[in-house]
Amino acid sequence: VQLQASGGGLVQAGDSLRLSCTASQRTFSRYVMGWFRQAPGKEREFVAAISKNGVTTRYAESVKERFTISRDNAKNTVYLQMNSLKAEDTAVYYCTASWYSYLSDRYGDFNSWGQGTQVTVSS
What we know:
Elements: E1 3-6, E2 9-12, E3 17-23, E4 32-38, E5 45-50, E6 57-59, E7 67-72, E8 77-82, E9 91-98, E10 112-113, E11 117-122
Parallel strand pairs: 2-11
Antiparallel strand pairs: 1-3, 3-8, 4-5, 4-9, 5-6, 7-8, 9-10, 9-11
């Protein structure tokens, strides 16, 4: 599945931003969807994942209570609402899809990746 992420930008600490990721295939609802991020000089890290039907979600501890992942299967789109942004949230954010049924936080369990969108939070 091809993924196209958008919505990144430059914001100030405390601001909000919503990322979107649209998939090319009508079989979008068969995939667990996730977001990872990669800051300069650091490894790519898990941010959030959502089940195929959108009922179950999973978050990294660092973003819990601030970020919300959601999906609209009718629009083949997954979202990441980011509130109370911090400077340490600065990274390239990647949308990803997994054909496994469980909500993994492991990079290797995700099979398709978008091109990434830059989020920069100034303090």
